[in-house]
Amino acid sequence: MSEINEFYRQTAARIDKALQYCDDTKAVVLGEGTLERVGTFFQNLFGADAKAVVVADVTTFEIAGRAVLERLEAAGVVVEDPFIFDAPQMHAETRWVNALHARFSPTDAIPVAVGSGTVNDICKRAAYLVGRPYAVVGTAASMDGYASFGASIEHNECKQTFSCPAPRGILLDMNVVCEAPLKMNAAGYADLIAKIPAGADWILADLIGTEPIDEIAWSLVQDSLRDSVADPTGVARGDKKALARLTEGLVMSGLAMQKAKTSRTASGAEHQFSHLWDNQHHTHNGEAPSHGFKVGVGTVSTSALYERILATWSEATFDAAIAAIPQNFRAWETIERELEENFGTSGLRETVENECRKKYVEPDELERRLRLFRDSWSELKPRLEAQLLPAATIQRMIADAAAPSTPEEIGIDRPRLERSYRLAQQLRYRYNVLDWTQDLGQWANAVAPLFQPGGFWN
Ligand SMILES: [Zn+2]
User: Fold this and answer.
1) How many domains does the chain have?
2) Is residue 327 in some structural domain?
3) What pLDDT is attached to residue 1?
4) What does the pLDDT read at residue 158?
């Protein structure tokens, strides 16, 4: 057996093992030339009599959609007219979900999404709304959402995650993925390497008990993570094996979210930078940077903060923070005032206030946490060090994959990045390194120096 075939065999074995923990997805096909088998793939999943409707955009229809349609027909599947989105720079928005919902309502055909993030998210949600399973044929290794439960969709100018099952089946043909634009696969690389600091954040949340680690989901994401991100230059070159490893890592992350029914498994503070810029409707050169590109800059940002913390904190830092609770404790009124200043009357304000209320704790709970961190410091510190990579290393790997590794490359200047640390902290309940810094009262000693002479971002 050739080396690459042996590699795909091992990949399939790892994915099949993961599938036993998943309720929605029954089959993942990943290899070269797999598009040829889409007919049997479809019939095995949905039965010999099931009809199909291909959903694509103009580009993905040309790349793979037409071939999918033809292979389905050749296998004897009744295929309805495809639904093809024809909107340049289309984003996952409610209006597209509604359009697709209207297309699905009068038929019982099974949707086959052909595309990546946007097409998959819209189709996932619309299929759920008509109570139907669906399948996806992925066209790029651009994000981890193929196998995940939930769809990220903009609603009332606010990006939200809507609940909906993952696809019944996922087919990835590496011959197609390798032809995807370089920047799409680079974005997927950044979305995957993000799981390194995201894992560290989950360790913190697990310790204080807000979101305990799900061991199975953890190992689905983390066990093969270092291998999956090991060849960033290969990703940039379009090397098939590097891209297959990346694709496997992204699929495994999605399956982990599906298993745990939460994105906690695959996202931490670095994703909050991205969500913040999404919700600020940030554009660069007239376009919204991709999810992965924003997450990549967030990943370098939180890695830099972790590095500073691990280099400067000790048990004494926690003792000092405990002693300072009476002076430093931020009452809810203070936080509310800050939210007013930071988010004003923007659409985001209400969401942020709800999230902050959820994570607000009284002084006695704060003290319990700080004592817990102090008492576990001798184990926690090496555990975080083992989980993380140096910020400069992670930055270089992201750059080697041809993804943006500095904020300027996505149109964020340094003062805005510094402010984004604060806003990202307030964005979401999910406990992470930003909350940790806040709880210790160490913002001025940990975040600010990153932007001062000698600091990572200076
Ligand atoms: Zn992501």
Assistant:
1) 2
2) yes
3) 62
4) 78
